[in-house]
Every structure is written in structure tokens, then in C-alpha cells.
Specification:
Helices cover 38% and strands 21% of the residues. It has a 6-stranded mixed β-sheet with strand order 3-2-1-4-5-6, with helices on both faces. A 6-stranded mixed β-sheet has the order 8-10-9-7-11-12. It is of the alpha/beta class. The chain folds into 2 domains: 172 residues, Rossmann fold, CATH 3.40.50; 155 residues, Dihydrodipicolinate Reductase, domain 2, CATH 3.30.360. The protein binds NADP nicotinamide-adenine-dinucleotide phosphate. NADP nicotinamide-adenine-dinucleotide phosphate binds next to helix 1 and helix 11.
Length: 343
């Protein structure tokens, strides 16, 4: 049995959920996949960084972060200059990169992942930025290094979307997809159906941790658009960036519009779609009224859905109910296992 050294860059909700999941699955990883692991390093944005080749005391590390403390006191060895020094000097086997998404450039996550690959690690992320802005470069670099660049959790968290197109669907032709890919806006529209105002709905979503302090990336459709781009780039093989998506958020949906749709037996949804056209891909994110016959109609709360349009399976859809950092962590764990067993 081998013991893998793991480092984390970004250790917030997702990183911590993954650390807990890894611990819970440790016995299963040993029994079924023949490996153990040791978390040897963590780098954050504002809470310092720590490296210890013998393994970090994870319970204490998480407790320190919960109280807003720094990781620097857990560090052993020479002082680290920056995150790149941390990555390069760690000699780890696996890098989990879970820093915040940058919709416009994918940075600094792209540089973190590149540094990990160059240093001979498998690199795994839930961050959509590098998938959209550097998929080709990082995939080619990973191949050159004999390593993997995996990102299952970047769209629909732990639901198998990208891996579905890496094996189980040989020779299929993907013509397009339609779905609901942003949990926050789906919840907000649902709350407005329950007669909350837009502002009340946003406040409630913020109070339960679904909407960010600045919820504009969700409300204005940027998060949905970058997910459309990630799917187009990877599973359809046509790289596009968020500014190429015909994007409209939900700010203009009024309570009156919602009630009018309800009276007609319909619902508003923020619909994401992409379809092949003669010279590429036509991609959009926009509010649409959907009928009860649409599979989108019954996607409630924070759930997500995608339906793929293929030449052989006309109605292949995947629903993910109740996403959370724990479901995201599962996608990262699945990537780890697939990297280790060469899938
Ligand atoms: N939350 C979810 O369920 C979910 C689902 C799918 C995908 N994702 C993606 O997963 C990633 C992490 O999400 P999260 O919810 O865990 O975010 P989060 O709670 O805000 O945590 C972000 C982490 O990244 C660190 N960080 C910030 N800037 C950094 C930098 N320049 N270099 C290194 N570390 C940096 C932060 O450190 P400080 O706190 O010290 O600044 C923090 O540890 C994001 O890309 C997100 O889009 C999340």
C-alpha cells in the first residue's frame, strides 16, 4: 500500500469538507483502492500556510481556522516565500486547488495548477476558472507529465458530468445541452413564487449560506455562464468564455411576472443552454417560462439539472438534489481515486 502526500491550496468550505470526507473514507480507500494518504500542507489566502512532511494535525488546523486563526504556527521547516514556493517545495503527490473562482481570467488558480503539474503532481480542482480559461494547456501539460488534471466538481458538484463523457458513452455525438446550473437563482425564483420580494429572497438565501454577501455573480448569470462554458469546452470540445454567452440574469423578473406564469401553470427558470451551430456553439443563460412538460419545471430549491441532447439517447438527464460543500467534496474524492487508479 502506498501513502500519498496531499497538499491543499484554498482550504475554505470545500477544502475542509474534503478533509472530513477523506478521513471518513480512509479505511475504504485502504481496503478498496490500496492507498492511504497524509495531508502535509495547506495554503490559504489570508490565513497563512503550513507544511509538515509528517502530516498536519487536521483537527487542530480546522479548529484554528474556525476561530479565524492563522496556519503559520503549524508550519515546520524553512519559511515559505509564497504559494508557489509552498507547492514546489512540498514534493507532494496530489494538489487540491480550491481557491475562489475568477470568472474573467481563471487566475491565480491556473498558475497554482500549472506549478503542481510541473512539480509532478496530479492536480484536482472544483474551480471553474481553470477549466474554462486553461483546459487545453493544463490537460496537455498533465499528459506530458504523465499526471491528471481533473475537475469533476466544477459543474454540478459531485454529480458525474465530465467523467460521464470520459468512458461510459463511447461514440456518442453530443449536440447540445439544456439545464439549470445555478442553485442560488433557482432558490431565489422559488422563494419569489412563495411571495417573497426579490430583496427578501436574497436576504434569506444569504442567511442560509446559499447567496454570497455580493450575490451578483449568481444573480447576473455569470456563475451559470461559466458553467456553460466549462461544459462546452470539455464535453463538446468547443472552448468558449463567459463573454461569448448570451447572458441575462434574473434581476428583471418581477413578482408580477412570476404570479402571471403561475396562473398559466408555468414557472420561470434561469435556463442554461448550448447547441452546436454551423460555426461553433450558440450558448445562452436567460430566464424562460417553462411548462409542466419540461424536465426543468420540477427542479426545486438549490437542485440542479442538465439534459444532454445526443444522437442516440435523446433524453439523458442528470439531477443533483441539495448540493453542499460535502457533495462538492465527493467529486474531488472521486477525482482522486480516478487519478490514482489511472482512469
Ligand atoms: N461551495 C461549494 O459547494 C462549491 C461547489 C462547486 C465549486 N466550488 C468551487 O470551489 C472553490 C472553493 O469554494 P469554497 O466554497 O471552499 O470557497 P471559500 O470557502 O471562500 O474558500 C476559499 C479558500 O481559498 C483561499 N484563498 C483565497 N485566495 C487565495 C489565493 N490567492 N491563494 C490561495 N488560497 C486562496 C481562502 O483563504 P482565506 O480564507 O484565507 O482568504 C480559502 O481558504 C471555488 O472555486 C468555488 O467556485 C465550490
Amino acid at each position: 500500500m502506498s501513502t500519498l502526500s496531499i497538499i491543499f491550496v484554498g482550504f475554505g468550505n470545500v477544502g475542509q469538507a474534503l478533509a472530513r470526507l477523506l478521513e471518513r473514507k480512509r479505511k475504504m480507500l485502504d481496503e478498496q483502492f490500496n492507498f492511504d494518504y497524509r495531508i502535509v500542507g495547506i495554503a490559504t489566502g489570508r490565513h497563512g500556510m503550513a507544511f509538515n512532511p509528517d502530516g498536519l494535525p487536521m483537527e487542530n488546523v480546522i479548529a484554528a481556522l474556525k476561530t479565524g486563526g492563522s496556519l503559520d504556527s503549524f508550519h515546520t521547516g524553512e519559511k515559505l516565500r509564497d504559494t508557489f514556493d509552498f507547492i514546489r517545495s512540498s514534493e507532494a503527490d496530489i494538489l487540491f486547488e480550491n481557491s475562489p473562482v475568477n470568472h474573467k481570467t481563471g487566475q491565480p488558480a491556473i498558475d497554482h495548477l500549472r506549478a503542481g503539474l510541473e512539480a509532478g503532481m496530479h492536480v484536482i480542482t472544483a474551480n471553474k476558472g481553470p477549466v474554462v480559461h486553461a483546459y487545453k494547456e493544463l490537460t496537455e501539460l498533465a499528459e506530458k507529465q504523465g499526471k491528471r488534471f481533473l475537475f469533476e466538481s466544477a459543474v454540478m458538484d459531485g454529480a458525474p458530468i465530465f467523467s460521464l463523457f470520459r468512458g461510459p458513452l463511447p461514440a456518442i455525438e453530443l449536440k447540445g445541452f439544456t439545464g439549470i446550473l445555478n442553485s442560488c437563482t433557482n432558490l431565489l425564483i422559488g422563494l419569489m413564487e412563495d411571495e417573497k420580494t426579490f430583496d427578501e429572497a436574497v436576504s434569506y438565501a444569504q442567511s442560509i449560506g446559499i447567496a454570497e454577501t455580493d450575490p451578483s455573480a449568481d444573480i447576473d448569470g455569470w456563475d451559470a455562464a461559466i458553467k456553460v462554458c466549462a461544459l462546452s469546452t470539455v464535453v463538446m470540445g468547443v472552448p468558449i468564455t463567459p463573454d461569448q454567452v448570451d447572458r441575462q440574469g434574473i434581476r428583471e423578473i418581477t413578482p408580477a411576472m412570476i404570479q402571471e406564469a403561475r396562473a398559466a401553470g408555468e414557472r420561470w427558470k434561469l435556463v442554461c443552454s448550448a447547441h452546436r451551430v454551423k460555426d461553433g456553439i450558440k450558448a445562452s443563460v436567460r430566464p424562460e417560462r417553462v411548462r409542466p412538460t419540461s424536465p426543468l419545471f420540477s427542479i426545486n430549491g438549490t437542485s440542479s439539472f442538465v439534459q444532454f441532447e445526443t444522437d442516440v439517447l435523446p433524453g439523458l438527464g442528470i439531477v443533483e438534489g441539495d448540493p453542499s460543500p460535502d457533495t462538492t467534496a465527493y467529486g474531488l474524492l472521486a477525482d482522486l481515486i480516478n487519478a490514482v487508479r489511472g482512469r
